[in-house]
Description:
It is globular and about 55 Å long. With 267 residues, the protein is an alpha/beta fold. Helix content is 43%, strand content 14%. A 7-stranded parallel sheet has the order 3-2-1-4-5-6-7, with helices on both faces. It is built from 8 helices and 7 strands. The longest helix has 28 residues, at 102-129. The chain has helices at residues 17-28, 40-49, 64-78, 102-129, 152-172, 200-212, 222-233, 260-263; strands spanning 8-12, 32-37, 54-58, 83-86, 133-138, 177-184, 244-247. The mean pLDDT is 94. The protein has a single domain (8-263), classed as NAD(P)-binding Rossmann-like Domain (Rossmann fold, 3-Layer(aba) Sandwich).
Amino acid sequence: MNRFAGKVALVTGGGGALGRASAVRFAEEGASVVVADLDLDGALQVAAKIDSDAIAVRADVTRSEDCEAMVQAAQDNFGKLDVVFVNAGIGGEKVEFVDLPIEEWDRVMDVNLRGMVLTCKAATPALIDAGGGSIVLMGSSTGGWDTILGSGPYMTSKEAVKALARNLALELARYHIRVNAVCPGIIETPLSFRQAEDDPAAWEKFFTRFAERIPLRRVGQPEDVAATVAFLASGDASHITGASLLIDGGQTLQSWSNSPETVYPLR
Ligand SMILES: NC(=O)c1ccc[n+]([C@@H]2O[C@H](COP(=O)([O-])OP(=O)(O)OC[C@H]3O[C@@H](n4cnc5c(N)ncnc54)[C@H](O)[C@@H]3O)[C@@H](O)[C@H]2O)c1
């Protein structure tokens, strides 16, 4: 497939696991890619891995001037901007509400939500200049009707993404800009299990345990997310806007009232 031939894509958090997979996918399908990340080394590695037009930009999405600069970099280097994957995010410290410093709440919201808004605000004029385009926001499958202990700021920031996708979709439709969100379940990346980055056995055990509780019996991979992001950003989704798409192998279908043994006997 060559759905992004002649298109220019910007990926925030492009040096991380899911950003990298999407940047690579956009490039494989013909896009020129701006890989933006707070971590310039990570972004440079991804840009170097891409065997086509790609540049790396250091950008902190909590700073509006950085957001404007990464959009400008797309226009300066590739002449325009067509697609934005607003992916940069942090998990935050695991800390329960009674012990939660308000600074930690602000830090997570600042990156995950305000950074998303600043990215969209910076990108919108460029997308309008290009005659329209597509924005894909990074949400999460968890946080809709459930939550994770000690992750209040993260869960709140991610649930808000769906509301933002709907609002931007309505307000930007007149400019031919589509806005959708992806909502991954647990994906096999260091953000899901930071403790075990240097311990392959613990990593394996952690994700195997999760896989047993997922109806499709495997943990998602970065490429699963990249394929969905590419679909939503492409012309194949030209009549889809305001949607939030789950990518979770059925993870959120199992409620606590269904015992895994009776409803999904392990085979
Ligand atoms: N991994 C999962 O299971 C999962 C599930 C659902 C949603 N997500 C979301 O996907 C996104 C990417 O997750 P990942 O697993 O690739 O994590 P990751 O930590 O590998 O990547 C996140 C990237 O964002 C960058 N970043 C952090 N703060 C930034 C800032 N202020 N400005 C610019 N860049 C910044 C980091 O440097 C990093 O490269 C996050 O928004 C995360 O919440 C992940």
